[in-house]
Amino acid sequence: xxxxxxxxxxxxxxxxxxxxxxxxxxxxxxxxxxxxxxxxxxxxxxxxxxxxxxxxxxxxxxxxxxxxxxxxxxxxxxxxxxxxxxxxxxxxxxxxxxxxxxxxxxxxxxxxxxxxxxxxxxxxxxxxxxxxxxxxxxxxxxxxxxxxxxxxxxxxxxxxxxxxxxxxxxxxxxxxxxxxxxxxxxxxxxxxxxxxxxxxxxxxxxxxxxxxxxxxxxxxxxxxxxxxxxxxxxxxxxxxxxxxxxxxxxxxxxxxxxxxxxxxxxxxxxxxxxxxxxxxxxxxxxxxxxxxxxxxxxxxxxxxxxxxxxxxxxxxxxxxxxxxxxxxxxxxxxxxxxxxxxxxxxxxxxxxxxxxxxxxxxxxxxxxxxxxxxxxxxxxxxxxxx
Amino acid sequence: xxxxxxxxxxxxxxxxxxxxxxxxxxxxxxxxxxxxxxxxxxxxxxxxxxxxxxxxxxxxxxxxxxxxxxxxxxxxxxxxxxxxxxxxxxxxxxxxxxxxxxxxxxxxxxxxxxxxxxxxxxxxxxxxxxxxxxxxxxxxxxxxxxxxxxxxxxxxxxxxxxxxxxxxxxxxxxxxxxxxxxxxxxxxxxxxxxxxxxxxxxxxxxxxxxxxxxxxxxxxxxxxxxxxxxxxxxxxxxxxxxxxxxxxxxxxxxxxxxxxxxxxxxxxxxxxxxxxxxxxxxxxxxxxxxxxxxxxxxxxxxxxxxxxxxxxxxxxxxxxxxxxxxxxxxxxxxxxxxxxxxxxxxxxxxxxxxxxxxxxxxxxxxxxxxxxxxxx
Lengths: 386, 376
Known about the structure:
Shape of chain A: elongated
Structural class of chain A: alpha+beta
Radius of gyration of chain B: 25 Å
Number of helices of chain A: 9
Oligomer: heterodimer
Number of strands of chain A: 20
Largest sheet of chain B: 6 strands, mixed
CATH topology of the largest domain in chain A: Rossmann fold
CATH class of the largest domain in chain B: Alpha Beta
Distance between the termini of chain B: 35 Å
Strand content of chain A: 25-35%
Number of domains of chain A: 2
Structural class of chain B: alpha+beta
Order of helices and strands of chain A: EEEHEEEHHHEHEHEEHHEEEHEEEEEEE
Strand order of the largest sheet of chain B: 6-7-8-3-9-10
Order of helices and strands of chain B: EEEHEEEHHHEHEHEEHHEEEHEEEEEEEE
CATH class of the largest domain in chain A: Alpha Beta
Largest sheet of chain A: 6 strands, mixed
Radius of gyration of chain A: 24 Å
Number of domains of chain B: 2
Helix content of chain B: 10-25%
Helix content of chain A: 10-25%
Strand content of chain B: 25-35%
CATH architecture of the largest domain in chain B: 3-Layer(aba) Sandwich
CATH architecture of the largest domain in chain A: 3-Layer(aba) Sandwich
CATH superfamily of the largest domain in chain B: P-loop containing nucleotide triphosphate hydrolases
């Protein structure tokens, strides 16, 4: 187990294209679980492959522990790798699949057996040891795959979309198992995923990437509650955050032109808005309360869509092109056509610069903040030890 | 406008069952979702109605006529697929107008233009009519495909997973918009999906299908709160419903004492539940309850005990996996502001109103408390 440090790590495939990974800085603590999250093509897999040694580094540094590993052979880096596709050796029994790399490293038979049995217990695959891969279900294969990555006791465990081939039920089950396993074993782990729920559920910290660039690196709740920019805000959360353009009208009200949407703002928010004439407003569906009673600061509207989803009800109110969706506790009270009032908690509002997409934060007044700083407008932040 | 009636539809592909004995009535202007996992027989059902696949047995009526002998083109149904099947070399307008220019449905040019513009406006693609298909986003392509089906004003819409190609974010917003548009369409629709949220959101009723057989047809409330079988219960909800075996220890008229999850606990029951339990041959009953209904460590009135096995924050909510005394795992969906340490001992409870009772032998639905679904 070890720390992993990436310093201005860059990968350029051809000069004609922008870098696949662009000046990535990332410090992973010993025992920490990090998720690289982003859409396809964001550079997350390339980053992982560079750490694994499967991809050359254009510039920058990869350090595991204190050792620079840029030029080390993959097998000498002390990393364990589990891919989305299992890549188990079909003619070998599970036991031999697990032992394969240990034998290659010259471990004695006794020690190999001891380690294989131990990891099999940990991943609950003891009864599979004498089967061949073809006899395994996809969930079992993925467990074996992870066991193979872990049996070498790597300094860093690298997981590349290990759950995305599995059906929904298995995915949730194995996600829980991985989380549990990490709580017990504290392997330094990096998982690559495009599934924001997976990243949120598993990681101590999430590195959100887009087009080769790190957009934000912070705890799941910080990334979720205080997204650094519009991209991060839109990428995390299901149902997605409502994000729409508003005009700053008189008295600092935020308005969707030619509609009833006019949201009064407090002095603190006005200060954030500064001299801007427009901004993007972001609000998560759970941050909106729907009511039939007008209150101070509530916004009138008419329901256009209601979704009854069992554990929750979603209510949509339309303002011209903007459909604002809210998630509320299950109710039968609301139907399309009903006039209602939407209430927004100030602390749940996210304000983004309409041009840069950066989150508005104190003192910025139009200038964009660096992506790695997530300063919430509401001053109070969970302490993050770095 | 038309109702649809399927009677005993059966289709085997060699030995593999596509669908078997599917009978279903869809009311005029009703929006029925057909929901099930991959390979359940959803698309086969749709293809049978469209006339693309011929049944081994059974019959289909659309409106007041039997369509078994009719060619697909003569059934006046319009299909929308997961793959948009648009003509890439055409513009949005040309794609949408295409069905109205076929020999069968030929319309005067002014009428064509009027219809295309009407539906393009409804679908919010009126500004894209001159765009080539390649220049469109996935969401815009899906809207165009919908538009092409709409302009025909068919008796019946058949939609096969039209949103499943879209990314999660777009799927949520398109689903809401589709639901918003439904009232303006007023066309009988059968909508196939493997996404339970889509099935519940869009359907007036949901037909749950698996392995070629219909398991239940009911309103979204019915299939979610009163699932016909354990299997149906498991198909709705994420994380999945908790299922536990309970042994009935003793029963009074208004309460029951059970052993389940390794503990003795009791809860109040309604007369309806009482009489359902009376009909059981043995002392065993299977209980289902949704993760969102589990109450964790509130106010000390929790009756059950466990240890935190795993804690997974998802933002607004978190999934808490609890090892019960019996070792069986229980999942709870808790408020995103709460945090739990692994291996910590906790107390939890399951409100009796959220318990669904199943027959442990047949796995069929027995009963649940009638006080449910957030009635105000």
